[in-house]
Amino acid sequence: MLDELLKEARRLTTPNKLEVEKAGRVAETVIESIKQNSLSSPFKPEVISGGSFARDTWLPSEADIDIFLRYPLNASKTDLEQDSFETASKVFGRGNLIIRYAEHPYVETYVDGIRVNVVPCYNVAKGRWLTAADRSPYHLEFMKKNLTQEQKSDVRILKKFMKVAGIYGAEIKVGGFSGYMCEVLIFRFKSFKDLVTSASEWRLPIVITDLEQVENAKEQFINDKLIITDPVDVNRNLGKALSIKTFSRFIIACRSLLKTPKIEYFIGKRVETRALTSPLLENLLAIYFEHKEMSVDILWGMLNHTVKSLAKHFENYGFKIVRSLAVSNDKDASAFIFLFEENNIPKYEIRHGPYAFEKENTNKFTSKNKDISVLMWINEDGRICALKNRNITTNTSFAREILKDPTKYGVSKKIVEPLKNNGKILLGREVKADSRRWITEGVKEILEPTDQNYLS
Fold this sequence. Notes:
The protein is an alpha+beta fold. The chain folds into four domains: 129 residues, Beta Polymerase, domain 2, CATH 3.30.460.10; 123 residues, CCA tRNA nucleotidyltransferase, domain 2 (Poly(a)-polymerase, middle domain), CATH 1.10.1410; 133 residues, Alpha-Beta Plaits; 42 residues, no CATH class. Helices cover 43% and strands 21% of the residues. The chain has 17 helices and 15 strands. The strands form four sheets. It has a five-stranded mixed sheet, with helices on both faces. The chain has a four-stranded antiparallel sheet with strand order 10-11-9-15, sandwiched between helices. Helix 2 crosses helix 4, helix 6 crosses helix 7 and helix 7 packs across helix 8. The chain is globular, with a radius of gyration of 26 Å. The two termini are 19 Å apart. The mean pLDDT is 94.
């Protein structure tokens, strides 16, 4: 049954002839234009094609063409950034460029609906990396040499499978598996079927490398629980970029596919949502705000940091958060959505202090709490305890405190003022009534997690 399903998945994930021809024309035109315009550069960078298009592992309607400009070692990193930007500006027009960020900035644009990335790197010998992008030409060479046509097709199937599960995409917004990581996994396990079969049984620590390198990898990356070595650089652990959560979601998805093979794992068809009628809506709180438009990568770095920090402060105060999520239109408006176990917490809070025999700590605790406590006592374990009044007992009130002084609650610097000046608190039914599609999608993900489709 799985074999038949994978035949259909292979058909769905293979670009048609027209798409291939169009992407080929765009790639050829863009590369030639960049080559011509780079001739005026004092550094004369080598221009090569890369990415999923060059490696023939791209998904239908999702061709992306990476153009690498390989600079000589006498160019500084500032030279790389400025010179590659100038070259791209001549080819595409400065107003058509989007600045993206990895280890250093690179540019993104679209040509006939196809995404094109222009990435500067150094022309270095293997193993003498100066930037992370220096490995990319070697990745291309390795995969073109080591992946068969069937394996390239399996990479496409894997990408689509991960995309539907919400774990594909190395960009900060997603924090999932990169395209290259998918290629490495198929290279290591030989096929999509063998990969998912193996992954369904994975246990920590997970080490994916050459058989003779397993012990070395464990020793070299001793603090890492997820180890996937880069075939062109054994000193690099690709797994370090992934969270335990992302890996866990992949494992559960693999088990679910093997248990009940169905095409929905590859087309993303979801059942009719009941999220917007859920009684849990009453326990939802969102903080909405508008801000200046900025790089999506920078924005999502701040949103991810801030939502974690705010959730931690809510919980430290006594609220129990079930789930939290950042959402954005990726331009000038964002929101943090929290699902609470309860919207209110008790009026009183117990503070557990030191043991009675810790004289100095006991004196400090009693001195600090005696005038602000309703009760103080020694519990059965011999610890000094204090019962204190809470000034805030509702999640709405705590959210208002956050908006008064966002810095105090770990909000990223660039969004402190926007939150303070125009932050708006939306409660359950107000969130439901909001007409912004990206907020509605966030609510659906909070109340009907994608993971739920794999946990039956």
